[in-house]
Amino acid sequence: MGRPRVCPICKKNVTKEESFEYKKKYYHEKCFTQFLKKTTKEEVRKKKEKQETEKAKKNIQKDTHISIETDITDKDILAKEQVILYLKKLLNLNKLNVKTYKLLKDYYTVYKFSYEGMLITLKYFYETQDNPIISDCVGIIPYVYEEAQEYEKIKQRISKEAEKLDMEKIVIEKIVKVNKNNAINNKLIDIEELR
After folding, report:
1. CA neighbours within 13 Å on the CB side: how many for 122?
2. Residues 131, 132, 136, 139, Cα dihedral to 10°
């Protein structure tokens, strides 16, 4: 007699009668249906992410006419698209100029700035610091990048600390009684008497 069959999901023995074979592994029928549902959801999520990335790539290449950076991750492509959309909204344009696209690509490849970091920098400089918007708005990124990243780290740390606080314990309820004898004199003043 051979080795007992073990279900890879629940790690329990499976008899020949109740086993379900899939890719040379034996499952309980219940375990296999759970496995299929899980893998299907995961595959759908991965396909959806891949489609979003491909769409972002096409949009960027159509807009920029500049090739996508080599060794760029899917996450960075989506972040680059967010930077471009933010700049279009900021400048109220349908298409950015080639210089802007080239600067963004250089900041990513030469300076090793992340696209998420560039977006944080732009929002910090134009929204938080309320600086005037100029046509060459990405030129400021190398000068403010580190400051913006530090600001974002502090902001995230403060929000984490604020989540930990229990407002019920901080707020102290106090009852104040007003004495009626100290009522304010509501006598009207006649302007004619003052003249």
Report:
1. 26
2. -20
Place of tokens 């006649």: 190
Residue 143 C-alpha from the chain's centroid: 24
Spatial distance between the Cα atoms of 144 and 107, rounded to a whole number of angstroms: 13
C-alpha angle with apex 63: 62 to 64, nearest 5 degrees? 100
- How far from the centroid of its chain's Cα atoms is residue 115's Cα? 12
pLDDT at 182: 57
Mean pLDDT of 83-95: 90
For residue 96, how far is the Cα from the chain centroid?
A: 23
Interatomic CA distance for residues 117 and 82, integer angstroms: 11
Mean pLDDT for all residues in the chain: 81
Q: How many angstroms separate the CA atoms of 165 and 19, rounded?
A: 52
Measured CA angle at 4 (ends 3, 5), to 5 deg: 115
The whole-model pTM stands at 0.59
Q: What are phi and psi of 69, to 5 degrees?
A: -55, 150
User: Who's near 142: CB < 8 A, 6+ residues apart?
Assistant: 107, 111, 113
Question: Residue 15's pLDDT is what?
Answer: 73
Kindly tell me if the per-residue pLDDT of 124 is higher than 90: yes
